[in-house]
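Run log // design_07
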């Protein structure tokens, strides 16, 4: 394939070949009709260089995941990291109009309406790379920017256009601190303090051993992921369950919004050493709604939400393996 924008780039090693990428990112091959319909839906003309790259492969994880920055960002002092590039389509989770694509991040997460979310980042939604049409208009050539949700949606310029952004990506080996970060996370989980609210819950029922259980569970989570964060995997769902179980036994959960408001104080934004230092509200909301729809969380006679007796028994059996 003759490429106008990427003739000097070796695209044979650009994309990461993995089952996860195939299942969640890579959309069907492009057609002109699909491009037109997506552009109409999102309200922006997509850059020619982006469309050309998507004709090679329509979205996916990439092997070079870091882009140097001239100013510090919250995630690092000298670069930002991406996970994958959104494809042009609607079918895959991480496509422009997919379940967790550009439309979702703008409409549900509050990202600024400056253009199109084009790349997700390892933070699970707390920062994104966007095509920024602020200067060029909806039909012009957008700049590429990093937007940090944790820093009030602060915008950092990355590249003058999408082609320059792709050519500027470098391997994470240049900046990799993941081994040291994981070591520090595990030390905090194993030896550090929990939040005051969780510590209170542990003391109320000290014989149940939930402090030890949660340390062991979080240790397994961090080792599985190679970093400390809660997403939608089975281990993360179990951590959500434990937090709700402890909270609902010690506080009245009178509504879904009330619990979602209280949730961050336990681990996400803990006032102790053990904290993920952020979280994805949509993931917690989805977990809660799923447990309610499954009737695993029910209202008791006094109108408080709690786990159904049957699921409480199931949960405690699951947690037995962490009693060591």
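design_07 sequence
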């Amino acid at each position: 394939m003759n490429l106008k924008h990427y003739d000097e780039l070796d695209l044979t090693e650009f994309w990461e070949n993995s089952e996860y990428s195939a299942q969640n990112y890579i959309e069907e091959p492009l057609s002109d009709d699909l491009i037109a319909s997506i552009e109409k839906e999102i309200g922006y003309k997509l850059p020619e260089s982006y469309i050309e790259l998507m004709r090679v492969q329509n979205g996916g994880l990439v092997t070079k995941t870091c882009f140097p920055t001239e100013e510090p960002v919250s995630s690092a002092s000298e670069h930002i990291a991406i996970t994958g590039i959104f494809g042009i389509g609607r079918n895959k989770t991480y496509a422009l109009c997919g379940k967790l694509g550009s439309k979702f991040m703008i409409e549900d997460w509050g990202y600024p309406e400056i253009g199109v979310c084009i790349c997700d980042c390892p933070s699970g939604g707390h920062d994104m790379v966007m095509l920024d049409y602020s200067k060029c208009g909806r039909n012009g050539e957008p700049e590429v920017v990093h937007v940090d949700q944790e820093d009030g949606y602060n915008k950092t310029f990355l590249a003058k256009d999408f082609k320059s952004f792709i050519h500027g990506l470098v391997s994470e080996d240049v900046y990799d601190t993941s081994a040291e970060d994981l070591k520090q996370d595990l030390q905090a989980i194993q030896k550090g303090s929990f939040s005051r609210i969780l510590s209170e819950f542990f003391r109320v029922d000290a014989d149940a051993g939930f402090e030890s259980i949660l340390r062991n569970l979080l240790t397994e989570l961090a080792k599985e992921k190679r970093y400390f964060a809660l997403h939608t995997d089975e281990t993360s769902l179990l951590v959500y369950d434990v937090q709700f179980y402890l909270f609902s036994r010690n506080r009245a959960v009178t509504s879904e919004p009330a619990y979602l408001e209280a949730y961050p104080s336990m681990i996400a934004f803990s006032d102790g050493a053990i904290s993920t230092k952020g979280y994805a509200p949509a993931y917690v909301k989805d977990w809660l709604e799923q447990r309610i729809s499954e009737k695993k969380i029910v209202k008791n006679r006094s109108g408080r939400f709690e786990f159904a007796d049957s699921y409480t028994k199931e949960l405690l059996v699951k947690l037995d393996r962490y009693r060591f």
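The mean pLDDT is 93.
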